[in-house]
Amino acid sequence: MSNPVMTGRRVCVVGERLAPTAREALPGAAMQIVAPEVLLEAGRGDRSPDLVLIDADATAPDLLVQAIEALSRLSPPPPTVLAGGHLPTNLVRALLRLERSDVLEAPFAPDALARIAARLMTAAPPSGGQSSRCWSVVSAAGGAGATTLAIEIADALSGLQKDGRRVCLVDLNLADGAASAFLGATPLMHLASSSATPERIDAAVLSAFAVQTSAGFDLLAAPRNPNAFTQITPEAVLRLLEVACQVYGAVVVDLPRIRQPWTLDVLAGSDEVCVVSELTVPALLAARALVNEIEADLDAGKQARLVVNRLASRVFGPVPSLVEAEKALQRKAAGGITSDWEAAAASVNLGGSISQHRPKSKIVQDVKRLVDRLVGATDHGQDARRGAA
Ligand SMILES: Nc1ncnc2c1ncn2[C@@H]1O[C@H](COP(=O)(O)OP(=O)(O)O)[C@@H](O)[C@H]1O
Ligand SMILES: [Mg+2]
Fold it and tell me: Over 60: is that where the pLDDT of 37 sits?
């Protein structure tokens, strides 16, 4: 099974002999077998590798020391594993200067390499590396569109990842989530079995729970289980999200509308909280109440974003406009999403995102605009704070 930590990641292997074990240990990775001299040029022009594996027995130690020193000058230096029977001290010393590095004594099994690679690749890069963003999406009223918009937000965020990291959608509607059915994917997240030992949830467990969707991002979704909310502990949910944020470039959470013991912690850990309403008076009133509740219970200053879904022209009776909706909400909406039943229905029937099956739909354009605006607002805020510091 391919591993979301490794899928599409660029792995440089120095030493032909290491290649078969590396391929077995890291399925899904884009592997390149290179001469050690290539590492001296790493990062020049080309993207630097996501992981470097070196067979220390296959090359002169001095050349390898130079290669590792070249890696240490990259920003951030890639995780590096040195494998061999007799590792010279000067080589190990050079390796230890890399923050994310390890040694493997030959002979070793593919499993041992897989474990070390997963640990190094999920470790936070030294400062200067990119941190993951977590978005939570919750409906103010059933059927307002949280699942639909969470899928399209995950899609839009996938297009923004600069370093090839994947995006993950986590469906926390643990009893009867719809994200897997919307995406035509198999729900594999058996979180109840991990609830007794949440500390054991790591990148390897996550990779067993995750499924790659045709939309291009990964999905963590639980099989239907009416007792899930009583069987799954807050510790397991929070540990799962913590690991997902380490493994993925961005995480989008489809949150249940009814508050769970872990809901506030998930919201507090989210960079963006989107409350989805539709354009009916009851939904708008519920959205106003939910936003107020969330903001009252979270740290001062943390804002929930209101997203008004299914904006339609007024041909079907007294539909409020976005401006009227904002009056009822007593706040500005972060974005409005046009109604497009054909695109929404076709995509769920075919299994996948709207952007995949109906890329020209206004829903796709509206979600992209919303995501670009919110990502831009955060980046500007961070730049301004950095400038003031
Ligand atoms: N902008 C939209 N235009 C048309 N249909 C939509 C739109 N957003 C959602 N839908 C449809 O509305 C229904 C409910 O959406 P869903 O995402 O399941 O809501 P929730 O997760 O809040 O219960 C689904 O059939 C979905 O395809
Ligand atoms: Mg839903």
Answer: yes
Atom of ligand 1 nearest to the CA of 344: 27
CB under 6 Å to ligand 1: residues? 139, 142-148, 178, 309-310, 337, 339-341, 344-345, 348, 363
Looking at domain 10-122, its CATH superfamily turns out to be Response regulator (3.40.50.2300)
Per CATH, the number for 133-388 is 3.40.50.300
Query: How far, in Å, is the centroid of ligand 1 from the Cα of 137?
Result: 13
Residue position matching structure tokens 């919110």: 374
**Mean pLDDT across the chain:** 88
For the CA of 311, the nearest ligand: 1
Distances (CA, A) of 10 to 21, 99, 309: 16, 19, 39
pTM here?
0.72
Q: For ligand 1, pick from 137, 148, 347 the residue to mutate: most ligand atoms within 8 Å of CB.
A: 148
- Using one digit for the tens of pLDDT, what is the confidence trace for 14-34? 999 999 999 999 988 889 999
Strand order across the 272-278 sheet: 211-212, 218-221, 167-171, 250-254, 133-139, 272-278, 305-311, 335-338
Ligand nearest to the CA of 144: 1
